[in-house]
Amino acid sequence: MNQRTAVDRARVLATPAAYKDEQNLHASLSEVRNETPVVRVEVPRYKPFWAVLRHRDVMTVERSHKVFTNWPRPVLMTAESDEMQAAAGVRTLIHMDGEQHRVIRAIATNWFRPKAMRAMELRIEELARKYVDKLAAAGGECDFVSEVAVNYPLYVIMSLLGVPESDFPLMLRLTQELVGSDDDEFKRSTPADETMNALLEMFEYFRVLTASRRENPTDDMASEIANARIDGEPLSDIDTMSYYTIIATAGHDTTSSCISGGLRALIDHPDQHRLLIEDFDLLPQTVEEMIRWVTPVKAFMRTAAEDTELAGVPIGAGDSLLLSYASANRDDEVFEDPFAFDVRRTPNNHVAFGFGVHFCMGAGLARMEMKKFFAELLPRLKSIELTGEPELTATTFVGGLKHLPIRYEMSH
Fold this sequence. Notes:
Blueprint lengths: L2 H8 L11 H14 L2 E4 L7 E4 L2 H9 L4 E2 L9 H10 L9 H12 L4 H24 L3 E3 H6 L1 H11 L6 H12 L12 H24 L5 H6 L2 E2 L2 E2 L2 H14 L2 H16 L1 H9 L4 H12 L4 E6 L3 E3 L2 E3 L4 E5 H4 L34 H15 L3 E6 L4 E2 L8 E3 L1 E6 L2
Parallel strand pairs: 2-10
Antiparallel strand pairs: 1-2, 3-7, 4-14, 5-6, 7-10, 8-9, 11-14, 12-13
Helix pairs in contact: 1-2, 6-8, 6-17, 9-10, 10-12, 13-15, 13-17, 15-17
Cofactor: heme
Keywords: Heme, Iron, Metal-binding, Monooxygenase, Oxidoreductase
């Protein structure tokens, strides 16, 4: 494959619709990864970037957080959206670097430590049982995504934040509009300013919640964020709202995608489903393989803080890089038979949660939610099959299944 072909193929990374066809997407990424693993991508409406496709190169960038910074472009968006977010002052954890990132991240860290996870374990088990019971009561046929997968992790993260249950439907709509802004089914309308309205609506919701928690603190994460102080000063309004937003979106859509994509993988690979049922001790490995298989965060961006090079390619100060987790998690240099779904895969050094200082602080919670859900579901599942074509979201950032029509038989 020549350089021009590689450049053309790499454009799928900036094509939201390409992520709806995983087979073609991965075929394109594999060809480019094997031939030109760091390639310059220029497409209309987006600022140029270097695509980083190999696992080892992604890890090099992740480890070199002083050379490759999150600010100012942590996510691939159109140039128009880049400018609008910058003008709005959006500054979440994924926008931060260095000491600022460390201090702000620490505000919520304790809520995701093992001790806190153990305290939540019974609650998550209850919620897993509730949603598996709901599946059992649905009459043997449903859209698994809309009935179960989007609601269970939403319930968990909103309970952790302290959002009242009556507001869960609003939070579901807003999170889907924010991370699904490239998908015709979820976006408000075509103009980027309409997508920004979803963010502003979420900000306004959390502004009211912050005022409430500052006046009457409670034992939830919202109170922790609302009353946090850095050097004796409360967080600015924009930093407070941004914090809630990243927790709400990152704690919901990624886990939802892994649960629905994980179930589809078991349906598509009945031999692996049988292996798991015959040896349920494989559940932790299965969950890791589901996470690798789905890779719900497709990519993050970095910016070179100085002139450097990567895989022998000169990178100029100020250049943007796209770390393709979707590509890295199918890299045959790291994963034996990477296009096989293997519940016994070990080791499984996927990068679905990132790596280093920006490693996802909710990784332990996501793993627990998945383990508890499948531990509740699979022993009760007598049979399951697809009743239609699964549909994936159009995205360049976070995504997975948006529809998974299934027919099943369960014990009550």
